[in-house]
Amino acid sequence: MIVIKSQAVVAQDNKNELPLKEKNAVVNSIKTHLQESYIDLDLAKKMIIELDKNSKKYDKIINPDDFSKTLTEDLQLVSKDLHLKVRYEPQRIAQEKLVVSEEMKIEAEKKTAKQMAEINYGFTEVKILDGNIGYLNLRLFADVKYAEETATATMNFLSNTNAIIIDLRTNGGGVPDMMQLLSSYFFNETPVLLSDFYERKTDTKTQLYSLAKVAGKRSTSKPIYILTSKQTFSAAEAFAYTLKYLGKATIVGEVTAGGANRTKRINLNDEFTISVPYIQAIHPVTKTNWEGKGVHPDIKTNEKTALVNAYVDAINKTAKGNKNTLLNKIGYAFLKEKSVENAIVVFEENARLFPDNANTWDSLGEAYFINNDKENALKAYKKALALDPNSESAKAMIQKLEIIK
Question: Cα–Cα 20 to 30 A to 186, which of 1, 61, 159, 263?
Answer without folding.
Answer: 263
